[in-house]
Automatic annotation (TrEMBL):
Belongs to the NADH:flavin oxidoreductase/NADH oxidase family. Keywords: Oxidoreductase. The keyword Oxidoreductase applies. Residues 7-325 form the NADH:flavin oxidoreductase/NADH oxidase N-terminal domain. GO terms for cellular component: cytosol. InterPro entries: Aldolase_TIM, OxRdtase_FMN_N, Oye-like. One of its GO terms (molecular function) is FMN binding. It holds the Pfam family Oxidored_FMN. Its cofactor is FMN. This is N-ethylmaleimide reductase.
Length: 349
């Protein structure tokens, strides 16, 4: 089933493989480069590409060398990337990732903002290396609307840059999940406290993006119960069931396997449109396999996303089709290095 086509909104995908968003930290400042166009174009046989996290505004930048989508220069540079992907027959969504408290003044030039003034129990990436996450500034109630609007503005910029759509990053401890989290969000206004309050920011951000470019061009990524970057969520099944019921009928949800199979199946049953499943869950030692993908398609997923398998295998679809061996990668080449980016060839027969 992985190699069968799928209709995602207005897009006909030639297969059910999704290239998952992965931070590569190779932008020039926060502007995409020619190498980034080559990197994504090499992988255009994927049914859908979702880019690395792209900050929707300046204060949302999580780390150095991560690209943005809030200036005319960035939009023009992304147009080179999307043109290259489309020229190779591909389809590509931009992942809009607001770091929230995962960031640093030395990176963005601003104190990070978050639901509450609570530092993440983790380290963050700066030009000087990894440093303890700083205490963010808590957003005032009116300022929350500014961050919602940033997702809508970035979505419009994405369409102007030639993207087929956008995915809001609601996973892995970034701003949207910080609002969902009982540990990061201790607000007493309408954006905290109850489940209805904690899901409100996610719903409003998705609604704003959908209003800006159309719901068929919008997805959201989620990691239910994921504990990366200091996140704790309470009442996970109820929290995510209520979130999915409150979201508009957008193109898809993209769920990491951070809960057990039974809970994932319940989310599948709750959600009315496309369900993308990433079997790998949070970052671990192993790459997901074709067999895992096929199992989840048989269990009700519509599309399967692969991350690390796409790093060293730009022709992953063909390797799965022909049963060819996969190339592994070294973690120290995942970010910034000149090697381990566009120098992985397709399989040589």
């Amino acid at each position: 089933m992985l190699l069968t086509s799928y209709q995602l909104g207005n897009l006909t995908l030639p297969n059910r493989l999704v290239m998952a968003p992965m931070t590569r930290a190779r932008a020039a400042g926060s502007t995409p480069t020619a190498d980034m166009a080559t990197y994504y174009a090499q992988r255009a046989t994927a049914g859908l590409i979702v880019t690395e996290g792209v900050h929707p505004n300046a204060v949302g930048q999580a780390g150095p060398f991560m690209p943005g989508l809030h200036s005319a220069e960035q939009v023009a540079a992304w147009r080179v990337v999307t043109d290259a992907v489309h020229a190779n027959g591909g389809r590509v969504f931009a992942q809009l990732m607001h770091g929230g408290r995962i960031g640093h003044t030395d990176v963005a030039g601003h104190q990070p903002v978050a639901p509450s003034a609570i530092a993440a129990d983790t380290h963050v990436f700066t030009a000087a290396g990894m440093v303890p996450a700083p205490v963010p500034r808590a957003l005032s109630t009116p300022e929350v609307a500014d961050q919602v609007r940033a997702f809508a503005d970035a979505a419009r910029n994405a369409v102007e840059a030639g993207f087929d759509g956008v995915e809001l990053h609601g996973a892995n401890g970034y701003l949207i999940q910080q609002f969902l989290s009982s540990s990061a969000n201790q607000r007493t206004d309408g954006y905290g406290g109850s489940i209805a309050g904690r899901i409100r920011f996610a719903v409003e951000a998705v609604e704003a993006a959908a209003d800006a470019i159309g719901p068929e061009r919008v997805g959201i990524r989620l990691s239910p119960g994921g504990e990366i970057q200091g996140i704790v969520e309470e009442n996970v099944p109820t929290l995510y069931r209520e979130l999915l019921k409150a979201l508009p009928d957008i193109a898809y949800i993209h769920v990491l396997a951070t809960v057990d199979d039974e809970a994932l199946m319940e989310l599948r049953k709750t959600w009315p449109t496309a369900f993308i499943l990433n079997p790998g869950g949070q970052i671990g030692p192993d790459e997901s396999t074709r067999e895992e993908g096929e199992r989840w398609l048989a269990n009700g997923a519509d599309l399967i996303s692969y991350g690390r398998a796409y790093l060293g295998n730009p022709d992953l679809v063909e390797r799965f089709r022909l049963g060819l061996p996969l190339v592994g990668t070294e973690r120290d080449t995942w970010f910034q290095t000149p090697h381990g980016y566009i120098d992985y060839p397709s399989y040589q027969h």
